[in-house]
Amino acid sequence: MTPAAEILISLMDEVRSELSLPELLCRDACRRLPISAAGIALMNRDGVIELVVGSDERATELEDLQLTLGEGPCVDSFATGRLVLHADLSAPGSDRWPAYTPAALQKGVRGLFSYPLRIGGIRLGVLDLYRDQPGLLDDADLSLALHYADAAVMLVLYLQTGDHDGTGGEPDALAIGRLEVEFEGHPEVHQATGMVSVQAGVGLTEALLLLRARAFADGRSVAETARGVVDRVIVFY
Q1: How many helices (H) and strands (E) does the chain have?
Q2: What are the tens digits of pLDDT across the range 155-186?
Q3: What tens digit of pLDDT does each residue of 107-145 get?
Q4: What is the residue extent of each domain of the chain?
Q5: Where are the alpha helices (H) located in the chain, listed in sequence order?
């Protein structure tokens, strides 16, 4: 089992709480990493916000703030598809985000780290980690944070199957193996997965993930996206 899958499985004891699965993931990251808050912002390919959640109210406000201002680590990470690390917002010369930085400092944030949520070249959103103390994460924590980003991607793809608020369904519904065999009951999805596998040069499991990611980014259902692939309107070259 991958580290990301283990993270998701660890949430099962809390899956019936009043919190959504993305919120539970953010809170779990705060328990296992030396951070003060965590947030997830999901966006479509045009950068339009689909969902913002956080480990607490402040985290959600920090996510909303940078999306409202149009600047910040989340915005940069989504635009570039790269990891954004900032050890100390109060350090001299930290004027990368002239509007966001003073507001974040006012809310007690010193260090922040943004991990893009993506599959291949398809961007889904960003996982943001915040610290009240300055300093970078060490190598072990950086690695663990990457696993949380991977878990967030898998969670996004799971939620796309229909349980969009993450609070319902059976606890075993997060079993990652289902992504390998879940073809939505539509023959086009099976056919499209094979076509994506050939076009992108990946295995069937990753091809299905790519198909789901493209559907999310375009704001379509998996079945609609699959039909686009079969009709050769959508390609993955």
Answers
A1: 10, 5
A2: 877 666 544 444 444 334 444 444 434 433 46
A3: 999 999 999 998 767 788 999 999 999 999 999 999 999
A4: 3-159, 177-230
A5: 3-10, 21-32, 57-69, 73-80, 100-106, 139-159, 178-181, 187-200, 204-218, 222-230
Tokens 């193996």, residue? 177
Averaged confidence pLDDT in the chain:
82
Q: Is 200 exposed, middle or buried (0-12, 13-18, 19+ CB in 10 A)?
A: middle
Cross-strand pairs, 114: 84, 128
Range 3-159: architecture per CATH: 2-Layer Sandwich (3.30)
Sign of the alpha-carbon torsion through 208, 209, 210, 213: positive
Question: Strands 49-54 and 37-43, how do they pair?
Answer: antiparallel
Locate 92 and state its tokens: 């001299």
Q: How far apart are CA 101 and CA 231, in angstroms?
A: 47
pTM, two decimals, is 0.75
